[in-house]
C-alpha cells in the first residue's frame, strides 16, 4: 500500500504575511509539483479576506496568480489556492505552515483545534517571543500546545523578495527531538538548488535567533548612527550573537550553541538584519535625529511597531523579573538607550 | 626583589606597516605609560629607513611624532622611538611585536637570532600563510622557529585608522598551550576601554582567521558584483567561516572551533572584511568589468597583490597536493572563478 501523499496548507493572514513569504509560497507550489510522489498538487492558503479595488483578495489571487500591489512581477504558482476560511484551508492538511502575525495565533488555533488530520504537523515562521507572567515562550511551542500537533520552526537569512526572485538563499528548520524524518517533509517542501534548507534538532534555538537578532540590529543601528565604523559594528554583532546564545541556553532546554554561530537562522540572518532592515534603519535615525522610537515608527513605518525595540523591552522585562539583566549587558544597554534615555554613546560602556 | 620591567620593541617595516598598525603603536605607547609598573616607558620601533621629502623617515617620526603622509592628524606617542636598526630596536626587548610584510621575516629573524633577551617572547600580526613543498605554515610558527622564542598571534576586526581614532574595537590574541600568563603581558600592552583584547589558547586558529577570511571576502565581492543581494552574501559568509574552521581543524593541531565562530579574529573580522576592504572591492569589479585581477591590481591597487586571490591560490594548490580540494567547495569555486575562467554565476553551484 502506497503511503498517503502530504497535503500542504499555508496559514497566512492578509497581504503583509503573503508579501513576507511569497518566496516560500512559490517554493511550496514548485516543490509540491516537482515531488508529486510525496505531495498533493494543490496547496491551500488561508488569506484574511479583504477588498482590493472592490474585489475580494482571495479571488484576485486565484484569478491572476499574482499580487501586483505588494510584489509586482512575481507570479504565484497556479496550484496555490487562496481561501478565506482557515478551517477549509487546513482540512486534511498534513503539513501546516504558520505565517500569522502573533496576535492572531490563539484564535486561529482555536478554530483549527479538533479539525485537523491525525497526521498533521506544523511549522512556524513567526518571529518574536511571548513574554507573560515571568515566563517566556516561543510561538512554535504556543502553536504545538494550542493545536496538539508537533510544531517545528523555520528561520533564516531569506529576505522575501530575493527568494521570490530566485536569488541564492538559505534557511534553517529547527525540529523536535526524534522527529528528523518528519521534518524532512518540510525540507522537501522548501529546498531547491537556489534555496538551501538546513536542518537542526533545535526548535527553541531557531525560533530565538529569529526573535533576538532584532535586538542586536537596534544596537548595530545605534552604532551606524554614532558613526563608529565597521570595527565597532562587527564587535556589537559578535557580542550580540553570544548574548543571544547564552540567553537561549539559560532559559530553554536542549538549545544547541551552533544554531547561533553556524546556521542561516543564526549568524547569517544576524548579518542581513544588521546591514539591511528596518530595525537597523530606525535605530540609526534615532541617534541622528534624537526623535523617540514611537515618532520614528509613525514617520518611517506608518505606525507599525518595530520588532527590535519591542523584543528588547519584553526580554529585558523578563530578565529583570528573573534578576538576570546584568548578565546581558548588551541587551540591557540597547534597552536603556531605546527606552530610558541613556546616551547612545554609552553603547559599549558596560560590555 | 621586584620583577624586571617589560621592554617593548615593534618590528615594523616602512610606512605601509606603520599605517596599518598605527592604532596599535598608539595603544602600546599609551599603555606602557599607563602601566609603568609593568613596562619600560620607552618603546623602540624598527622602521625601514627611507627618505621622505629629503629627510630620513625615522627622524621625521622622532621629531614630529606623527606621519602626516600616511595618517594625517593622528599623533604618535612621544615614548615610541623609531630606529633604522632592527638589532638596536630589539636589544633587551622582552616583548617583540612583528608587523613585517612576510617576505622580510626570515632575513629580519636572521639578524635578530642570538641577539635577544633570554626572556623575550614575540607576537605576530602578519597575515597570510606560508605554503611550500606540500606544507602549510602560519607566520607565528615561522618566527618562533627562526628566533627560538615563543610567538603568539594577534588578529581581529581592528581597521587601523578607526583604532587610531579611538573608535570602539576588539581584537584577539592567540597564545600557545600553557602560556596564558605570558600572553597577558601582550593583553596589558594593547587593551584599553575602547580597544578590547580577547585571549584564546589557539595561535593557529587566530592566524588562519586572518589569512583565510580574505578568500571569503573575494567570494563576497563576487556576490556583490553579481547583484545577488544580502541573503546570498550572508550565506557565502556563513559557509565561508565553516570552511575556514574545517580547514584549520584538518591541517593544524589543537585548533578551537570557537576561534572562528565567536572571536573578533573570526566572525567579526570576516564581517568587516566582507563589507569593507580591498578584496571585496576588487572582486566586485572583477565581475562587473570582466577585467582579470592583475589588471585590477594595477588599476586599483598601484600594482600591489591582492591578499585574497593570492591566499586562495596558495591554499587551493596545497589542497590539490593533498587531494582534498573537493572537501572545500567554496575555496575551490572562488579560486576557479579568479584563476580558471569559471563563470562567476557558478559561485554557489557546488556548495
Automatic annotation (TrEMBL), chains A, B:
Primary enzyme class: oxidoreductase
Catalytic activity: sn-glycerol 3-phosphate + NAD(+) = dihydroxyacetone phosphate + NADH + H(+)
Annotated binding of NAD(+), by residue: 104, 160, 278, 305, 307
EC identifiers of the protein: 1.1.1.8
Glycerol-3-phosphate dehydrogenase NAD-dependent C-terminal domain span: 202-347
Residue numbers binding substrate: 127, 278-279
Short name of one Pfam family: NAD_Gly3P_dh_N
Family that this chain belongs to: Belongs to the NAD-dependent glycerol-3-phosphate dehydrogenase family.
Protein name: Glycerol-3-phosphate dehydrogenase [NAD(+)]
Organism: Malassezia obtusa
Amino acid at each position: 500500500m502506497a503511503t498517503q501523499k502530504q497535503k500542504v496548507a499555508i496559514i497566512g493572514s492578509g497581504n503583509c504575511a503573503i508579501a513576507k513569504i511569497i518566496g516560500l509560497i512559490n517554493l511550496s507550489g514548485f516543490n509540491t509539483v516537482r515531488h508529486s510522489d510525496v505531495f498533493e498538487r494543490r496547496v491551500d492558503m488561508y488569506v484574511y479576506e479583504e477588498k482590493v479595488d472592490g474585489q475580494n483578495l482571495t479571488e484576485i489571487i486565484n484569478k491572476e496568480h499574482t499580487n501586483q500591489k505588494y510584489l509586482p512581477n512575481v507570479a504565484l504558482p497556479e496550484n496555490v489556492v487562496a481561501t478565506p476560511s482557515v478551517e477549509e484551508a487546513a482540512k486534511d492538511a498534513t503539513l501546516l505552515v504558520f505565517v500569522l502575525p502573533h496576535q492572531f495565533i490563539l484564535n486561529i488555533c482555536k478554530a483549527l483545534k479538533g479539525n485537523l488530520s491525525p497526521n498533521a504537523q506544523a511549522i512556524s515562521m513567526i518571529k518574536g517571543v511571548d513574554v507573560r507572567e515571568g515566563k517566556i515562550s516561543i510561538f512554535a511551542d504556543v502553536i504545538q500546545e494550542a493545536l496538539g500537533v508537533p510544531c517545528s520552526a523555520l528561520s533564516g537569512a531569506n529576505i522575501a523578495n530575493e527568494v521570490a526572485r530566485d536569488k541564492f538563499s538559505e534557511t534553517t528548520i529547527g525540529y523536535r527531538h526524534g522527529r528528523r524524518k518528519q521534518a524532512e517533509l518540510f525540507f522537501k517542501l522548501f529546498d531547491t538548488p537556489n534555496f538551501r534548507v538546513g536542518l537542526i534538532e533545535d526548535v527553541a534555538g531557531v525560533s530565538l535567533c529569529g526573535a533576538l537578532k532584532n535586538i542586536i540590529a537596534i544596537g548595530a543601528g545605534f552604532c551606524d548612527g554614532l558613526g563608529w565604523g565597521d570595527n565597532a559594528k562587527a564587535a556589537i554583532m559578535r557580542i550580540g550573537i553570544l548574548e543571544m546564545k547564552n540567553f537561549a541556553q539559560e532559559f530553554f532546554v536542549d538549545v544547541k550553541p551552533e544554531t547561533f554561530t553556524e546556521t542561516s537562522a543564526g549568524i547569517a540572518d544576524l548579518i542581513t538584519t544588521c546591514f539591511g532592515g528596518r530595525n537597523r534603519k530606525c535605530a540609526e535615525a534615532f541617534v541622528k535625529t534624537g526623535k523617540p522610537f514611537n515618532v520614528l515608527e509613525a514617520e518611517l513605518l506608518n505606525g507599525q511597531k518595530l520588532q527590535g525595540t519591542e523584543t528588547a523591552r519584553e526580554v529585558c522585562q523578563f530578565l529583570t523579573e528573573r534578576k538576570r539583566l546584568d548578565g546581558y549587558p548588551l541587551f540591557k544597554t540597547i534597552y536603556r538607550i531605546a527606552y530610558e534615555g541613556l546616551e547612545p554613546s554609552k553603547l559599549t560602556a558596560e560590555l
